[in-house]
Write a structure and sequence with these properties.
The protein is of the alpha/beta class and 410 residues long. The chain contains 16 helices and eight strands. Helix 10 links the parallel strand 5 and strand 6.
């Protein structure tokens, strides 16, 4: 599965929710009027795109309708796609040009900071870079041990202190070690914090000052990790963290488990902070660079345009073949079971003599008794190639009775 397919698969829930609603709206209106735009604004807001961004999208769409003289709603999908692509702007990758390149990871507990650090460390290690991780989350219980497990998996070094020690001191030692060991990338974990915890937010400022002082001239990325499942709450977190830290990018995790992927648009537009990484799964390679064009294409394209959907369609075709074969087998068995009684009852009815009619009534009764008393193996003979014997026995019995009656008359 290529990178685009991973993004498409991760956005499936968002696509099914958002685009399903959009298509239903387009089909319910035959013309473009103010009622349509009111419905569209409400729909975009419910898709976690945000009030301000939704109003701006509808405003741009109104301009496109007037400029191009559009009259049908089916013509608006391409225009919406183009507007959202322009809003997301150009892609901005992580800056790791200096040596060491420092990446500071911040965010609330449970957003996926530790997992993101482990995946980033594995990525740069696979690229042949030397990576050091600083375990500066000294407040949360077992946070250091958890991060140490990830570093062992990735095969990178870790700088740690005892639990409860000064996080800024850990970062200081980590920067010193990165310079001495000529590391390419230094990834710093920090304690999960909320905006209303003043002491923790002050600690974050202190860590940022130490990094700027000790790693002066090095590229510094301050990445805010946000949980995509929280929707607009994630946007509010970004606003509050932006007041304390100089955020250079967003890492949006758990995108594959939510239908609220529309917050990417509002984060870009309302905060001016680019989304640089997205998490679309639990595997090490499921942390992907964000590309605006791929995001919009995955959101608006039809299902069969994605590689992962071709695999899903193949599975459906196999199941269809199986379901077509099963009924035919059942029908053939039923017809086999019904063929013999019909042939037996037809022959005696063709004769006009009274004994034949009596025999016609007696034969089915004998057949049913025989069917009840016989074992499954004998029944298989009747349904198989020896079924013709039953017909011959019937005619033989009938002929014998006719001869007996003639001899009595004589």
């Amino acid at each position: 599965m290529n990178i685009f397919s991973k993004i498409a698969a991760g956005l499936k829930k968002t696509k099914d929710s958002m685009m399903g609603k959009l298509e239903a709206l387009m089909n319910s209106f035959t013309k473009i009027d103010e009622d349509f735009f009111e419905e569209l604004e409400e729909l975009l807001i419910t898709c976690d795109i945000g009030v301000e961004t939704s109003l701006e999208i509808c405003g741009e769409l109104r301009k496109k309708v007037k400029e191009k003289g559009l009259t049908e709603t089916v013509q608006l999908m391409d225009e919406l796609k183009e507007i959202i692509t322009e809003m997301l702007g150009e892609d901005k990758a992580l800056d790791t040009s200096s040596k060491p390149a420092v990446i500071l990871i911040i965010g609330v507990n449970g957003a996926g900071k530790t997992t993101t650090i482990g995946k980033l460390a594995a990525r740069y290690k696979n690229e042949g870079k030397k990576v050091i991780v600083a375990a500066a989350d000294t407040f949360r219980a077992a946070a250091i041990e958890q991060l140490e497990v990830w570093t062992q998996r990735a095969g990178v070094d870790i700088v740690k202190h005892a639990e409860g020690s000064d996080p800024a001191a850990v970062v200081f030692d980590a920067v010193t070690a990165a310079k001495a060991r000529e590391a390419d990338v230094l990834i710093c974990d920090t304690a999960g914090r909320l905006h209303n915890k003043k002491n923790l937010m002050d600690e974050l400022k202190k860590i940022s000052r130490i990094v700027n002082q000790q790693a002066e001239g090095c590229s510094l990325e301050t990445l805010l990790v946000l949980d995509a499942t929280t929707g607009q709450n994630a946007v509010n977190q970004a606003k509050l963290f932006g007041e304390t830290a100089d955020i250079t990018g967003i890492v949006l995790t758990k995108l594959d488990g939510t239908a609220k992927g529309g917050i990417i648009i509002s984060i870009h537009r309302e905060l001016g902070i680019p989304v640089k990484l997205v998490g679309v799964g639990e595997k090490l390679d499921d942390l992907q660079d964000f590309h605006a064009r791929d995001f919009v294409d995955a959101l608006f394209e039809t299902e069969t345009d994605f590689d992962y959907n071709y695999e899903r369609l193949d599975d459906e075709e196999e199941t269809e073949i199986i379901t077509e074969e099963e009924p035919s087998e059942v029908i053939s068995e039923e017809t086999k079971a019904e063929e013999i009684p019909e042939e037996i009852t037809e022959e005696p009815v063709e004769t006009e003599e009274e004994p034949a009619e009596e025999n016609a009534e007696e034969i089915p009764e004998n057949d049913t008794e025989a069917e009840q008393n016989t074992e499954p193996e004998k029944k298989s003979l009747k349904d198989g190639k020896f079924g013709f014997l039953f017909k011959e026995i019937t005619f033989g019995k009938k002929k014998k009775e006719d001869n007996d009656e003639k001899s009595e008359d004589e």
